[in-house]
Amino acid sequence: MSSHQQEIDAAATSIMPRDWKPQANWSHYLTFLTFGIIFLLVIVPFVISKIRQRSWKEEDSLIDVSGSPSKLDVFLTCFDPAANFRVFLPEGRNEGNLRSFHGARFIMIFWILVGHEYLTAYSLARNPSDAGTVSASGPFAWIVGGLFGVDAFFFIGGFFSAYIFGQRMGDTEFGPKEYVMVFIHRVLRFLPSLAATLFFMWKVVPFLGGGPVWPRFVADLDERCGANWWRDLLFIDNLGPSPLLDKMCVGWGWYISCDIQSFLFIPLLLAALQRRPRIGKLLVCATLAVSLLYTLIFASIRHYPALGTGMEETDFFQIFYYVPWARIPPYLIGILYAVWYASPKSETIIKVRKSRLLTTATHIVGAAIMYWLVVVVRPVLADRKAFNDVQNVLYLTFSHSLFVVGLAIFLAPGLLGSDFVNNLLGNRVFEALGKLSFGIYLVHLMMIPWRMFSTHTLIYRNHWELFISSVTTTI
Prior knowledge:
Elements: H1 3-10, H2 26-51, H3 71-77, H4 81-87, H5 100-121, H6 131-135, H7 138-144, H8 147-169, H9 176-204, H10 214-233, H11 242-245, H12 254-262, H13 266-275, H14 277-302, H15 315-321, H16 324-327, H17 329-342, H18 347-354, H19 356-375, H20 378-382, H21 389-416, H22 420-425, H23 428-435, H24 437-453, H25 463-474
Helix pairs in contact: 2-9, 5-8, 5-23, 5-24, 5-25, 8-17, 8-21, 9-10, 13-14, 14-17, 14-21, 17-21, 18-19, 19-21
């Protein structure tokens, strides 16, 4: 029985240990004040709208910006809840053949969320002895497969980075100034929301929960964030020795750091593709090959199991899982996919687009690749030694890249022209949910521990209950 389980059993009826309460200092008060100001800035437009007798249906904005709006009106419009909320609602505009990415983003973030739900759940389970049985079951392969969701986001990020870069830069010369501006724009896309998540979790969440194990959760959170918050905000939390990586403040922020670090290099590749397409493609492919070779070498030397996790060698995350030079292949494949999408199509591609049979076959091939990569490791879930060294190395080296290749093939008919998959994944529901995917990613690992570690009783865990919990967290 884990220490968490013992604490819950010992104090199952306790609302909170009597000798403990969260302690507030100046940093907590400053955080409360900051979020309070933001809350007021959201409320003020509502008050102004009532004064001006405006309704949501009659105006696009709650702030009067007709004529020459004042600077105050323009500033408050940035916090206008109606205007900001509409960004996440279906707009009815034609996004062409890229609509399927909305559904892909939401499905992948939900897949990741389910995996994290399972990961957290069994530290507080009433039936921990069932963990081995559950992990060896068929459905659990799909839970572990959520690891591919991260690769899908790298792939989508690479695609849109290249696609938007090509559209906006055009024939514009790309020099040092443009490089700096592109990188700053990337940082500013992530930094404010990451900082808000970090400080809300560190300084506010401890006051929102309670239970037998809540003090331990808060103490661990304060230790990790007190020492390493600055690493998250500098986007270097994913780099360093394993003991340091175990103490990340926003533990899931490594994905953002990996993206930012990759973007130190990505604009140079995009500029090469813009100026000299052939040389640019060769550079992208060479970078992809070097990254795969790095993984191949270290997977061979370290003898990591196929899934990489659950082993004694804790440097797996330090050497492979968190670092951009090992995780960049899906990003590069996304760039090549964007180049293919923007290029003139051959007669063969046109025939595929016009044939429902070939279109369906393409979907099936892409789905089959993804399906196989998920289920082929089922024996490893029951026995870590089910794969030999060669199988382990090949799976670790190529599975992440092959998964996004499968995803690219699956989405390709939709990108060539409207088809049933594009219409399904691009419908208005998925459009709204897809736009929320980054927000879900940022807050889901605040919601899951908050709910789990605020529990007063141990919870019986099974596949169905954890799935329902994941849906609840998403909502």
